[in-house]
Amino acid sequence: MPPANPNDSAPRAPSELPCPQCRTRVVWSSENAYRPFCSRRCQLLDLGAWADESHRIGGESAMDEADIDAMLREADRDAPLS
Ligand SMILES: [Zn+2]
């Protein structure tokens, strides 16, 4: 088996990307365990924002349905029948 093409196996020059959370330039390398984030803090912030958002949306829509239901029932009760 011939040796692998050095161009294929050569590591690419480290590229820099802005951290999605704080926009700090981050070197994209296997040494950066938090990529694409610059740090564990930014990684957790992003995950937390995600979890927070889905939690909030789910709770709101459930409450909205209950609210609408209650409002409709109240409107029925309050509406004069005569
Ligand atoms: Zn960051």
UniProtKB/TrEMBL annotation:
Gene3D superfamilies to which the protein is assigned, alphabetical: Erythroid Transcription Factor GATA-1, subunit A (3.30.50.10)
Binding site for Zn(2+): 19, 22, 38, 42
Pfam families: YacG (PF03884)
Co-factor: note: Binds 1 zinc ion.
Listed InterPro entries: DNA_gyrase_inhibitor_YacG, Znf_NHR/GATA
PANTHER family for this protein: DNA GYRASE INHIBITOR YACG
Entry protein name: DNA gyrase inhibitor YacG
Species in which this protein is naturally found: Vreelandella subglaciescola
Taxonomic lineage: Bacteria, Pseudomonadati, Pseudomonadota, Gammaproteobacteria, Oceanospirillales
Gene transcribed to yield this protein: yacG
